[in-house]
Specification:
Shape of chain A: globular
Strand content of chain A: 15-25%
Largest sheet of chain B: none
CATH architecture of chain B: Orthogonal Bundle
Distance between the termini of chain A: 35 Å
Strand content of chain B: under 5%
Chains: A alpha/beta (about 325), B mainly alpha (about 280), C alpha/beta (about 325)
Number of domains of chain B: 1
Radius of gyration of chain B: 22 Å
Oligomer: heterotrimer
CATH topology of one domain in chain A: Rossmann fold
Order of helices and strands of chain B: HHHHHHHHHHH
Shape of chain B: elongated
CATH superfamily of chain B: MetI-like
Structural class of chain B: mainly alpha
CATH superfamily of one domain in chain A: P-loop containing nucleotide triphosphate hydrolases
Helix content of chain A: 25-40%
CATH architecture of one domain in chain A: 3-Layer(aba) Sandwich
Largest interface: A-C, 47 and 49 residues
Number of strands of chain B: 0
Helix content of chain B: over 70%
CATH class of one domain in chain A: Alpha Beta
Chain lengths: ~325, ~280, ~325
């Protein structure tokens, strides 16, 4: 890796994750391409938003990057080190530097462990702090995320969704990571609690200098928290740009449709009739652009040839033959 | 299990009258087994031919057998054997079953293939005849019976544990532990096992009932606990010869086995229903 | 829009309580509202605010026990639904009021084709022969803009995408031409692009059929998109009630304001949001006085004392805040 790329904390190159359906009496080995050749980088201190609709592969991408599920192929450079090549123990030693925040605050906390054990487990496992010192450290972390030190003695089920998400965040920041992948961290929460958690994530970023990969389906939230935004569709990144730039001039037809669909929150500005095409199952596509069936501008070339992600200037990347 | 869950578990459990009754009977049987030497009116081995085959009377609650031994006292001591065999055998099968299931479920791949195919092979043998064969080879004794029942009855547990591990392995809190860099062994013991055990123990309760029954069967066939040691099974066997003259020699041990096994089954079902939120509120 | 004087649905002081082993949950408390023919009223609030229970109470679908409609009156088309025999209520449910839910999969039977299910609904209420019913079902599918309805009518629910299923569900709900449609989070399980389409569809059909809709949702974006009037619920009560422009532009309750400001604006970036502090209260342990006071930035001592009534801000705008004059914009 050369010097000029040193300010990238994370570089993902040609990451793929395919799932093979197991069928006993069939030779059908056509995989589901959950993540299909995605490439992007995140600078130190930057927040990259990864946005897309359900089933687009954004969560799989996030988990593959931390090797919580094993990628099918591709390279993942974290601080210049390709973590795909690491063995279990080497990877385990690198874990403190990169953490994950999960979507479902009910699923992501072990119901049989006290909050203190959940938050302090990383400290213990990596021998950062033990005993008395660990307890103090845990109190400190709990306060950082807006919980009370005595909450350490309680069990997860005694907390509401928003507070549980705070516990999950406390666990993620307990080892002072550099990179945090947040997978829909607020989408399971009520609106008023969403705002609290978003504020917390932004405050922590400002105070502790985290780098985020922020995964969400909610464009408002992604726009609010991210510096740059990557839009995923059916396992691929179709557009990636600075957040402001992306909202000002969305170039990919899919991004345009997504942006149009955001409810305006102003009764006077109700969304007008857009290209209302019903979504279609994606297994039917043999070749060409993945978006061709929903695209209002689809032409012959789109059916024959798959577009690649190209820079249209100012770091604005689009995968479309007919950039409008 | 932590307090809140325990409370709600108990609330659902106690609604099931039969299960509570089963638990009460089991506690009584336990108490009897524990205090048999104190409450038994006679020495269970003491023979007195002058009093042979007496029918139940105030002197001998449940009568006497062909050697003049007090059936009531023998039954009390017999409960010790039935319960020990039941629990030790199930403990052995749990240890093996949980280990095999955990390794297969957590590591997957070739470990899973080998272990689970081995389970399939074990399941191909009709287990009672397998037990008979092994006991016949090793010689009948209480120890052998316990071990043999244990090592021939773990397959259900291992399948069950494997399934639990397979689903728990993909839960987010396990992913979270892995993301923290927690080692495999700790993930298994701190994160997965505690969440898999409750249903395993429920299944084990039902297994105790089976083990008690198997022991009785073995003793009945003469391959189990050897006379003169009293077990419900061999009291039954010995009484078989006198079934028309001394009904009490077969009826009481038979009833004891029936009630104990039934109680374990009722308790097990009650526990299962109370632990499974989907089954709650069906009563 | 012409609003008729007498409302189609008139709910007065509805209270629905659940008697659990841990105590009484007053899920809905003293809720009153009206819906007029041809309008969309939205009940909006966060989880546990009682909006869904209100919807189920209207159809008398509250599981009893533990639930019970403790008091109130529900006038629909002049009749008090709470006084009807169960038999008559069944007729109301199929003919006059329909309901659609968040997850269409739970209300569609997986072993029958969508056509079968729509035809069944049609045959139940009108009495056409099989051929006629099928024709009508295809018409309904066409009406909810399912492409090539002649082919889709023989699909099973699992063969359809989420958006298609919700459309099929709407077709089924509309097949008996109800006067009132209760839609409980109809687009929450859908992706944004599909949500926009389904909302547009609901709006169109509602206008065509001059049907009244009660839309239950947690999403103010959805409300802004299609509602005419809004009732904001918090802790089982309606805290603000008024026309949509008023609720979004001149709200008079701090909770409404807090909800709106919790949503990131597309214009500003990386700013802290004006989040409402604290948690939604435990329904079994509600605070004294105004239920919102522990989280309220306008709270004064009087707020803790007694529960405020609904103050009339103007002829069609109400707020349950004693400080509505200084709130909120």
């Amino acid at each position: 890796m050369n010097m000029s790329e040193n300010d990238f904390l994370l570089q993902v190159q040609h990451l793929r994750k395919y799932f093979y359906r197991e069928r006993l009496f069939s030779s059908d080995r056509k995989p589901i391409r959950a993540v299909d050749d995605i490439t992007f980088s995140i600078r130190r201190g930057e927040t990259l938003g990864l946005v897309g609709e359900s089933g687009c592969g954004k969560t799989t991408a996030g988990k593959s990057i931390l090797r919580l599920i094993e990628p099918t192929s591709g390279q993942i450079f974290f601080k210049g080190k390709n973590i795909v090549d690491l063995n279990r123990e080497e990877l385990r030693r690198l874990r403190p530097y990169m953490q994950f925040i999960f979507q479902d605050p009910y699923e992501s906390l072990n119901p049989r462990m006290r909050v203190g054990e959940i938050v302090g487990e990383g400290l213990e496992v990596h021998r950062v702090a033990q005993g008395r010192e660990k307890v103090e450290k845990v109190s400190e972390i709990l306060m950082k995320v807006g919980l009370h030190p005595r909450d350490a003695m309680r069990y997860p089920h005694e907390f509401s969704g928003g507070q549980r998400q705070r516990i999950g965040i406390a666990r993620a920041i307990s080892l002072n990571p550099e990179l945090i992948i947040a997978d829909e961290p607020v989408s399971a929460l009520d609106v008023s609690i969403q705002a609290q958690i978003l504020n917390l994530l932004m405050d922590l970023r400002d105070q502790l200098g985290f780098t985020y990969l922020f995964i969400s389906h909610d464009l408002r939230i992604v726009k609010h928290i991210s510096d740059r935004i990557a839009v995923m569709y059916l396992g691929k990144i179709v557009e990636m740009a600075d957040g402001e730039d992306l909202f000002r001039r969305p170039l990919h037809p899919y991004t345009q449709i997504l942006l149009q669909a955001i409810p305006r929150l102003k009764p006077s500005g109700r969304t007008q009739e857009g290209p209302a095409r019903e979504e279609l199952p994606f297994h039917s596509l043999e070749k060409g652009c993945l978006f061709q069936l929903r695209c209002p501008h689809s032409r012959e070339r789109c059916r024959m040839e798959e577009p690649i992600l190209l820079d249209q200037g100012e770091d604005h990347l689009v995968a479309c033959h007919f950039v409008s | 299990m932590e307090q809140g869950q325990l409370k709600s578990f108990w609330r659902y459990f106690k609604r099931n009258r039969l299960a509570v009754g089963g638990m009460a009977i089991i506690l009584v049987v336990f108490f009897i087994a524990g205090t048999a030497s104190l409450i038994a009116p006679y020495d269970p081995g003491k023979t007195d031919v002058s009093k042979k085959l007496k029918s139940p009377s105030p002197e001998h609650f449940l009568g006497t057998d062909q050697l003049g031994r007090d059936v009531f006292s023998r039954m009390l001591y017999g409960s010790r054997i039935s319960l020990s065999v039941g629990f030790v055998a199930v403990a052995i099968s749990l240890v093996i079953g949980v280990f095999v299931g955990a390794v297969a479920g957590y590591y997957g791949r070739w470990a899973e293939t080998i272990l689970m195919r081995f389970v399939d092979i074990m399941l191909c043998f009709p287990s009672f005849f397998l037990i008979l064969t092994v006991v016949a080879l090793l010689g009948p004794s209480m120890m052998n019976v316990m071990v043999v029942i244990g090592i021939t009855s773990w397959m259900g547990t291992s399948r069950f544990v494997r399934a639990e591990f397979l689903s728990l392995r993909e839960r987010d809190f396990v992913h979270a532990a892995r993301a923290l860099g927690v080692k495999d062994r700790r993930i298994i013991f701190r994160h997965i096992l505690p969440n898999a055990l409750a249903p395993v123990f429920v299944a084990a309760t039902l297994d105790v009932a089976t083990a008690v029954l198997v022991e009785a069967g073995l003793s009945f066939l003469g391959f189990g606990v050897q006379p003169p040691a009293p077990s419900w099974g061999n009291i039954l066997t010995e009484g078989r010869t006198y079934i028309f003259d001394a009904w009490w020699l077969t009826v009481f041990p038979g009833l004891a086995i029936l009630i104990t096994v039934l109680s374990f089954n009722l308790l097990g079902e009650g526990l299962r229903d109370a632990l499974d939120p989907r089954l709650r509120g069906r009563r | 829009m012409v609003i008729m004087k007498t409302p189609l649905l008139d709910v007065r002081s509805l209270s629905t309580h659940f008697f659990t082993e841990d105590g009484v949950v007053k899920a809905v408390e003293d809720v009153s509202f009206e819906i007029f023919e041809g309008e969309i009223l939205s009940l909006v609030g966060e989880s546990g605010c009682g909006k869904s229970v209100t919807g189920l109470s209207l159809l008398r679908l509250i599981p009893t026990p533990p639930g019970k409609i403790a008091s109130g009156e529900i006038f629909f088309d002049g009749r008090n639904l709470l006084k009807l025999e169960e038999k008559e209520m069944e007729k109301v449910r199929g003919n006059d009021i329909s309901m659609i839910f968040q997850e269409p999969m739970t209300s569609l039977n997986p072993v029958f084709t969508i056509g079968d299910q729509i035809m069944e609904a049609i045959q139940l209420h009108q009495n056409p022969d099989k051929k006629e019913a099928r024709k009508k079902a295809i018409e309904m599918l066409d009406r909810v803009k399912i492409p090539s309805p002649e082919a889709r009518i023989d699909s099973y629910p699992h063969q359809l995408s989420g958006g298609m299923r919700q459309r099929a569900m709407i077709a089924m709900a509309l097949s008996c031409q109800p006067k009132l449609l209760i839609a409980d989070e109809p687009t929450t399980a859908l992706d944004v692009t599909i949500q926009a389409q389904v909302l547009r569809l609901m709006r169109e059909i509602q206008r065509e059929m001059r049907m009244a809709v009660m839309l239950i949702t947690h999403d103010l974006g959805v409300v802004a998109e299609i509602a005419d009037r809004v009732a904001v619920m918090y802790a089982g009560r309606i805290v603000e009630y008024g026309p949509i422009e008023t609720i979004f532009g001149e709200m008079r309750h701090p909770y409404t304001r807090g909800l709106l400001e919790s949503i990131p604006q597309l214009e500003d970036k990386r700013k802290r949001l004006n989040a409402i502090p604290g948690q939604v209260p435990n329904p079994m342990d509600l605070p004294m006085g105004c239920k919102f006071h522990p989280r309220c930035y306008l709270m004064i001592e009087d707020c803790k004392k007694e529960e405020p009534p609904l103050f009339q801000v103007n002829d069609n705008h109400f707020s349950r805040c004693i400080r509505w004059k200084v709130c909120c914009y």
